[in-house]
TrEMBL record:
Keywords: Signal. The lineage of its organism: Eukaryota, Viridiplantae, Streptophyta, Embryophyta, Tracheophyta. It comes from the Eukaryota. The keyword Signal applies. This is DUF7705 domain-containing protein.
Amino acid sequence: MAAFSLLLALFLLSERSSSLPKSAAVRYVSALGDGGMKNRNARIALEAWNFCNEVGDEAPSMGSPRLADCADLTCPILADYLHQRLDSHGSKCEVRHWVNETDNKLASGDNFPVSGFTSYKDPDMFANEKERYLGSLCKPHDTEEEPWYFWMIMLKNGNFDKNSTLCPENGRKVGKIVTRRNFPCFGKGCMNQPLVYHNYSKLVADEKGIMHLIGGFNGTYDLDAELSKGAGTRSFFSVSWQKNVKTGSWVFSNSLTTSRNYPWLMLYLRADAAEGFSGGYHYNGRGMMRKLPESPNFKVKLTLDVKLGGGPNSQFYLIDIGSCWKNDGQPCNGDVLTDVTRYSEMIINPATTSWCRADNLVSCPPYHTSLSGQIIHRNETSRFPYSAYHLYCSPGNAEHLEKPYDICDPYSNPQAQELIQILPHREWSVHGYPKKQGDGWIRDSRTWDLDVGALSSRLYFYQDPGTKPAKRVWTSINVGTEIYASNRQETAEWTVSDFDVLVPEQKAISS
Ligand SMILES: *[C@@H]1O[C@H](CO)[C@@H](O)[C@H](O)[C@H]1NC(C)=O
Ligand SMILES: *[C@@H]1O[C@H](CO)[C@@H](O)[C@H](O)[C@H]1NC(C)=O
Ligand SMILES: *[C@@H]1O[C@H](CO)[C@@H](O)[C@H](O)[C@H]1NC(C)=O
Ligand SMILES: *[C@@H]1O[C@H](CO)[C@@H](O)[C@H](O)[C@H]1NC(C)=O
Ligand SMILES: *[C@@H]1O[C@H](CO)[C@@H](O)[C@H](O)[C@H]1NC(C)=O
């Protein structure tokens, strides 16, 4: 497949610096298997996570919460040449599915149809094994060198039963949860996995007779719901994909509705590391990114059309970037006691306020780095851009925190986490991000060209004093919403298309 690439002028961070050239021409190439979402074949998977990104218990007769829809569209060469045009007698095109119902229904303890995968009884470990199995079925055959797998739809339920021991505390297994923090939970079983339904990708013709694939997933966390009669007061999610016939991009249409029993839900479309850890996930997973983007040199492009916001607590992320490194700057190695998930998110719902304020420094990062590289301490009230931040919280296993500090929720990840949540602001719009609240929100659909690399290199992340700065390599780039505990039913709806992650082309190393 032809790599989608762009010739971009890279303006170095400090234009004023005289020792550096004003600009240098750098060729950017897509880091994704499905760059710009232009592939006509479908490579899509779904994962459902409980509060700490595990499974816990599988939903009745649903299997392990990992599913995939991987379908190739093949049309006869001549029809292909004529843009897959149909003759009046109907389609000559065919769909080949690489994942079938039996694969998608695999549940913990089941044997895999091929060797090389272990049929764990533990639902958490089985889900990871199933993800790798589905990946092996979906891996495109033209790419031995830099394999890639699928877009990942992530669905997460924010219920947490403090009487259970399903989630560790900052990565540490605990026999009993003792905390004053409050979490939604309606009672026993509140951390269940969803019911999921699937329309396998199938052929449709556009008005010119050109064939495309279309498909989708929907489902609910309310196990007593009857979705065929509509979701009603129950929780609901749906993600469907079809082609924009003008641009050739996939359009992912998303919808997420909370319910009384499931007031806190998340639905993201993720470009994860093709192999290895991804943001918030401590197993060797499967994803879309063949090359990993590293700050400060990478960009993210996407078209986002928010149709319904999801209420005041909907933290809509344009975008969320996730990674993992240790407090001493070393990369993660799967040791959940010292690995730390790092997230940064821009929240574009204009109802989101700044918790970081001059009178609430506890929710601010210790300092802000200005575009020119100046460090502005959070107590410099006349200069610190408080309204550029929603909140900052520190990893629970950090040993040298500057007071005052807040520790991030110690239970909602497999390990400790650090979060820096930013808001639309002039500080960030220089990198292509929204300038003011409301930009990119409902009825303001836009195609964004975000210099995520430059922005993320300016963010504060905790590190132990005297240690070498971590390489900021990002293993997940996500877009979607997190509807926080809402006391009424809320619905968010949005579409994502043209998604790409662009990284500088690497010079081939000759041996
Ligand atoms: C589904 O696919 C698996 C693996 O390719 C294969 O072993 C199995 O026979 C298939 N099942 C059906 C019902 O087609
Ligand atoms: C947890 O245990 C307490 C005390 O036994 C009980 O009151 C509460 O309902 C339990 N919570 C859940 C979610 O089961
Ligand atoms: C499957 O497609 C039908 C017809 O378009 C639609 O009504 C239904 O909601 C879809 N279901 C899923 C799981 O996407
Ligand atoms: C979800 O998908 C199922 C299966 O395609 C369909 O019967 C149902 O109507 C859909 N539910 C909603 C609420 O769209
Ligand atoms: C601001 O914080 C820095 C770093 O903690 C400290 O050195 C300085 O004294 C503080 N300034 C004021 C005015 O509190």
